[in-house]
Amino acid sequence: MTKYIVQGGTPLFGEVEISGAKNAAVAIIPAALLVDGVCRIENIPQISDVTLCLKILENLGANIRSMNRHTVEIDCRHIHSTRTNYDLARRIRASYYLIGALLGRFGQAEVAMPGGCNFGGVRPIDQHVKGFTTLGAKVTVEGGFIRAATETGRLKGANVYLDVVSVGATMNIMMAAVMAEGITVIESAAKEPHIVDLANFLNSMGANIRGAGTDTIKIHGVERLTGGSYAIIPDQIEAGTYMAAVAATGGQVLVKNIIPKHMDCITAKLVEMGVEVEENEDTLLVRRSGKLQRTNVKTLPYPGFPTDMQPQITAVLTLAEGTSLVTESVWSSRYRYVDELKRMGAKIQVDDKTAVVEGVEYLTGAPIQASDLRAGAALVIAALAAKGRSEITQVHYIERGYEDIVSKLQALGADIQSVEEPDINLEANVG
Ligand SMILES: CC(=O)N[C@H]1[C@@H](OP(=O)(O)OP(=O)(O)OC[C@H]2O[C@@H](n3ccc(=O)[nH]c3=O)[C@H](O)[C@@H]2O)O[C@H](CO)[C@@H](O)[C@@H]1O
Ligand SMILES: C=C(OP(=O)(O)O)C(=O)O
């Protein structure tokens, strides 16, 4: 079992380089299945979700060459199966993209029901299914697999009106439609930066997608996608997490390799809280010396405040002067980390979708456990700011989405170590 040991209370100083975006990478890698050629993908983050995505593709017959730590070449010219490995696919949320990609290229797909972060509520995929069926596929669930297939081997372009703004459904339907016959229009589409990134990737391989980043996306089906080279955008949420860490601990950090526009929704909130943020071409200088001020935060689809930053900003608000309200409006529930923050002395009351956060003078280190990826990030932030020692367990969740988080924080002066410990066998101690 790996755990992080954090001795908190040290302000962060220095520079941090942001990696490629997880939620773009986990879509673009499956999208390589649509390409009848070699895709060179650069700025791939070294995280466990990416490793899994690559393994799933390899099992389907993709030839994957690692060119360097952040660049892979994926050759999907000789895919031999449209049925994914059950145990691999069920472990990540993004495995749902394999359905759109396989269906779009081969007219059929069999993929395990997706996993991913468990926020304590449901994570439906009905809008994905609605999109596939509107394009002419039959979708069933059998033996834990989602099976999607067309009668003719090729989907037919159509208008898809999403009932909820869904990142996953928007990207999945885009993948399925890229080689469909005719034109597909996705209405009420999500607008996150990774949606634009996926469209740019597919267009660079020969697709014809217009309007990504707006709520109407138009896709002219093409016959074939060929190879090319593409670099993934920087991770908005990883960058936001380091910004939040500086806000919590104090100090000054240059956050490098970012797209400032993508950060506006996060920067604006931190500035309201008294954090100074200086924007340059592809960096943000983040500084906090005075007291943190209270604010209210409501998560919304892009360009609103991202739900994937909600736990991290809440961790910062536990140390702000006054009472803040945090409202989660994307997911029905995403507060499993709150009990862990309370172990550190945070004062938070959750009532349905709203957390009432009463700022405290300081947090104290404690043994705490990550319950999902961003919950884990929030605990790291709290532990860095807290007085004393924290032990964070279940850090494999954190490593799903943060490349080298321990060494990046150490380079900023944080006292954080990753340690391996044998699992405790409770049964062996009985009697
Ligand atoms: C791999 C990946 O990119 N994961 C991100 C993606 O998840 P994911 O794609 O699962 O999230 P969605 O944008 O689809 O979900 C948004 C909302 O729509 C609802 N919904 C979604 C699909 C559907 O078929 N039916 C339905 O009702 C969900 O319950 C949720 O309330 O976007 C979320 C919202 O920004 C992020 O938190 C996740 O980090
Ligand atoms: C919830 C997240 O990821 P996933 O959808 O892959 O579980 C996330 O990135 O915060």
Give the full name of the CATH homologous superfamily of the largest domain.
Enolpyruvate transferase domain
Could you say how many structural domains there are in total?
Answer: 2
For the secondary structure, the number of strands is 23
Uncertain stretches = none
Write a brief caption for the model:
Cell wall formation. Adds enolpyruvyl to UDP-N-acetylglucosamine. The chain has 431 residues and is α+β, with helices and mostly antiparallel strands. 31% of the residues lie in helices and 26% in strands.
Written overview of the protein:
There is one protein chain. The protein is of the alpha+beta class and 431 residues long. It has two domains: 2-19 and 234-426, Enolpyruvate transferase domain (UDP-n-acetylglucosamine1-carboxyvinyl-transferase, Chain, Alpha-beta prism), CATH 3.65.10.10; 22-231, UDP-n-acetylglucosamine1-carboxyvinyl-transferase, Chain. Helices cover 31% and strands 26% of the residues. The chain has 14 helices and 23 strands. The strands form six sheets. A four-stranded mixed sheet has the order 21-22-1-23. A four-stranded mixed sheet has the order 2-14-16-15. α10 links the parallel β17 (296-298) and β18. α1 packs parallel to α7, α6 packs parallel to α7 (193-204) and α8 runs parallel beside α9 (260-272). It is globular and about 65 Å long. The protein starts with a strand and ends with a helix. The relative contact order is 0.15. The structure holds uridine-diphosphate-N-acetylglucosamine and phosphoenolpyruvate. The site of phosphoenolpyruvate has 10 residues, from α1 and α12. Residues 23, 26, 93-94, 123-128, 164, 166-169, 190, 307-308, 330-331 line the site of uridine-diphosphate-N-acetylglucosamine. It holds the Pfam family EPSP_synthase. Belongs to the EPSP synthase family. MurA subfamily. The active site is at 117 (proton donor).
